Each structure stands twice: as C-alpha cells, then as structure tokens.
UniProtKB/TrEMBL annotation:
Protein name in UniProt: LysR family transcriptional regulator
Family note: Belongs to the LysR transcriptional regulatory family.
Molecular function via GO: DNA binding; DNA-binding transcription factor activity
Domain of life: Bacteria
This protein's UniProt keywords: DNA-binding, Transcription, Transcription regulation
InterPro entries in the cross-refs: LysR-type_TF_proteobact-type (IPR058163), LysR_HTH_N (IPR000847), LysR_subst-bd (IPR005119), WH-like_DNA-bd_sf (IPR036388), WH_DNA-bd_sf (IPR036390)
Coiled coil: none
SUPFAM superfamilies given in the database record: Periplasmic binding protein-like II, Winged helix' DNA-binding domain
Pfam families: HTH_1, LysR_substrate
Species of origin: Pseudomonas graminis
Positions of the HTH lysR-type domain: 3-60
Length: 299
C-alpha cells in the first residue's frame, strides 16, 4: 500500500503542532495542503488518523500508534540521506534541538550566532519544552537538560557553564517593608512567587550552607508555569509583590541594576551546568556533528 512520504511528513507536522494552522506555519506549507495530505492517508489506510474539533486536532489511537512507528523511521531516512553530506565541503541540513526555556535564554544565545556564522549551510530549529520528552519522537536531533543521568543509549556532552546557582531576590522596597530573611525558614513568613512544572508539581526551594541543607515550601500570591511565564514572576518581584527564586544568571541584570536585592545569598545552592544529549546508537547527522565539534572546541 503506497503512501507518499510527503503525506507522512504532513501528518507528522500536524500532530507535532497540534493543528493544521500551526503545522502549516512551522512547515511552510498551507493548511489546506496538510489537510488534503492527511485525508489521502486516511483514505488509503481506511482508518481515521486524527480527531478534528474546532479547538484541537489530536491523533486517534491508530494515529498515535502510527506516530510511534513512523517518526523514528523518518529519522532513519533523514539520517541515511544525511550520509551524502559527508561528501560535501561544508555540513548542511537542519539541526533540531529540544531545550528548556532556561537553556534557550541563558545558554544558547552565546552559542547560536557564532555557530550559524561558522556554518552558513546549517539551519536550526529550537523547541522549548519543560517536560522530559522522548526527543526522537518529538522529531529532534538532540536536547539540553540539567542532569547527566540519562537513558543508557544517550550520550551527554557538557554545554555552557559547568557550575550555576539558584538565587533568591526581592525588591528593596519589599524587603524594607517586610524585613530581610536571615534563614531559609524565615521565607515561610514572606510572600513568595512560585513556579509550577507542566506535570503540576511545585518544586521546593532548596538551600545549603556549611553542610546544612534546608528545603522550604513557602506560599505567596502568584504561581507561574515554569518556562515562558517565569519573566512574569521576575517583574512582579521587581514591582514589590514578593520574593522570587530563579537561576542567578536570569536575575543577574536586575541584581546588578539594583531593581532586585539578593536574599539569603550565603545559602544559594550550586548545581552542575547543563548537558547536550543525543542518541548514541545511530548515525550522527552532519549538522549535529558540527554542533558537537563547535561546543567542544569552545570548552
């Protein structure tokens, strides 16, 4: 039963984007052409692959099973075609990265521009994701995470600073009015601006000093989803609404300007920097290989 590979790519684009309009925007095709492609597939296969409503497009059970099998297969086809790049003078193709918002904001800006300037035939797609997703199923070549404990068939390569800190801060006006915490447990009597993961879990605030580790679960007037909404909590802290805890590098410009004041700085915990990870049991596409070489040369 012949199915055009372009129809398969259209189906994958729609599912990954969650709709025809967004799939069209990301793939550079029209929404009507994607819809026609999926309709042809459903007609050939004799099953419905997508449930369409006015608000969403989600795969049926058959569509989900097809996605599980076809995405890795398409990845292998792309890798096979990428072998031709070994015969080119310069690597080319698309490099797709799956990263948390913090990495997109704090790690990649110093890397992306010089990398793309050095490799003008490579294009990059960066997808931000706070959940630990199946990178291959998401159609990505590599990902960035803040933990080197990965699946057995993954390779982890350091990227960015090797040591970072979580910082706690508030506006001087807030601290003048409410007092300055001297111990992490004092935060339980303050208004704290919290973050929530997509899973619904709200991480505790952790501190360490002279071997003493303290975890607190403070409350406050605002909770934001970790990722794109974090800047909202930073701004509300600047406005004097409460205390925020975040990557030190994220807060550093506001600490340097005086808009925020460090809170409990001797207690700020250190943690290892992020890792670029990718599958170790497959051909490494030339754009990814070039990126690996680039970050390793940077140290």
């Amino acid at each position: 039963m012949a199915t055009d590979i372009q129809d398969l790519l259209a189906f994958v684009a729609v599912v990954n984007a969650g709709g025809f309009r967004e799939g069209a925007r990301l793939s550079g095709k029209s929404a009507s052409s994607l819809s026609d492609a999926v309709r042809r597939m459903e007609s050939r296969l004799g099953v419905r692959l997508l449930n369409r409503t006015t608000r969403s497009v989600v795969p049926t059970e058959a569509g989900a099973r097809l996605m599980e099998r076809i995405v890795p297969a398409l990845g292998e086809v792309e890798s096979a075609l990428d072998v031709v790049n070994d015969f080119r003078d310069r690597p080319s193709g698309t490099l797709r990265l799956n990263v948390p918002v913090s990495a997109a904001r704090l790690i990649l800006p110093a890397i992306i521009t010089p990398f793309l300037q050095a490799h003008p035939d490579i294009r990059m797609e960066v997808i931000t994701e706070e959940s630990f997703v199946d990178m291959l199923a998401a159609g990505c070549d590599a990902g960035i995470r803040y933990d080197d404990r990965l699946e057995q068939d993954m390779i982890a390569v350091p990227i960015g600073p090797r040591v970072q800190r979580f910082a706690t801060a508030a506006s001087p006006a807030y601290l003048d009015a409410r007092g300055r915490p001297e111990h992490p447990r004092d935060l339980l009597n303050h208004s704290c601006l919290r973050g929530k993961f997509p899973s619904g879990s709200i991480p505790l605030w952790e501190y360490e000093r002279d071997g003493e580790e303290v975890r607190v679960d403070p409350t406050g007037p605002l909770t934001v989803r970790i990722g794109g909404a974090v800047d909202l909590s930073v701004q509300t802290a600047i406005d004097g609404l409460g205390i925020v805890s975040l990557f030190e590098d994220w807060l550093r410009p506001h600490l340097d300007s005086g808009a925020l004041e460090p809170v409990l700085e001797p207690w700020w915990p250190r943690f290892s920097g992020p890792f670029l990870y990718y599958p170790g049991r497959r051909y490494v596409p030339s754009p990814l290989r070039a990126f690996l070489d680039f970050i390793q040369r940077r140290g």
